[in-house]
Amino acid sequence: MTIHHNLNRRTVLKAAGTSLALPFLPSLSRRAFAAEAAPVVPKRMIAISFGYGITKETWFPDPTKTGTEFTLSEGLKPLERHKSRITIIQGLSNKFSNEGHWGSTFYLTGANRYAVPGLNFYNSVSADQVVAEEYGKHTRFTSLQLNSKDNYESGHGPGLSLAWNRQGKPIAGIDTSLALFHKLFGDDETSLEERQRALAEQRSVLDAVLVEAKAIDGKLSADDRRKLDEYFESIREIETRLAKDEAWMARPKPKAEVKQPAAEPNGIEETRLMQSLMIAAFRTDSTRVITYRQPHWNLMKALDIDYHPHDVSHYSPGSRMEASQKRDLEMSRLLAEFIDKLAAVKEADGSTLLDNVSLSFGSNICSIHSLDNCPTILAGGAAGVKHGRHVVLAAKQTPLCNLWVTLMQGLGIEVDAHGDSTGTLGELTA
User: I want to staple 160 with a disulfide (CB 3.0 to 4.6 A). Which of 170, 207, 342, 366 is the partner?
Assistant: First the structure.
């Protein structure tokens, strides 16, 4: 059996071309690091963006009701159970944004597209990569960039993910949950195609390591044994769902007059899979920084919305506005589910994963071609934000980058400015 006790207090099981990093188990750590102080639970960052904005008439809460005395809007109602855990901000903007269909290109950078004379496009480093430069020193993956296959049709604009490096060049993202699963859990020598074949045959990476895991079992406390069982079950569930999707991909569609099952996860299921895998990445400490360009068009297809996202973004009272509102509600439901999942994961010190994450959710586009009130929701305790509030900024066009500087400082990153920032948002921590 291969058990490594020197990998950041984590255990890695390897067998049959697979590798699986386990969550922190105090029972093993006490034995391996008896002379060391208890480990500090790391902070993490997640930035989720969507393309064409929201329905501004029904997404934002009443701007006259701020602080804790506010009511969630129609578009945010699915988040009601998390009202005390979230912060909604109005008044943020990116002054250099001038493209109503570029929802994420400058979202985390705040760059001036025309900053270099003679060039019609320039970008700078994104906030996640500033954090990753420090946090990534301690993990296998410096950061993870997640996308969906419908990015081009979903109003995100130029770029390969939300992330841009120090040279302002786009960083490639992972477009499917299957590819992310392979990156996190597949052996480096096993190709994605081989992984797909294995999944189609319904083989599990867990089958190869469970035998080895039994040897660890006798060293665990009852609480750690439960934690390990829950972790294996969560990975098994993800893998089983992916295997089903792969099996459908290999089958010809039946010639019938009923709606055929999708060959790939629809936008809703794909988002849920990505959520579960993001949590798995954090639990194994594979990375501490993740960005996600969330599905938009595929999500709308899953909701049986016949309009193209661009057409819905140019809504007016009527069916297109109703479609926009329907999309808003589903995005809020998915965000609420993600917060549920984060809050359900217990950390080694008794806190939850939600306590140790800084989660931002929003877009560089407000609505239609409006770029002056970027929809923004925050959750998680890692950056020191005091939640359960609706914040309406006095300066109606406060730089969005003021938010990123505030969150980065809360995450312990020494930074005074970013993009077009002019300061920090003291309202969030006061």
Answer: 170
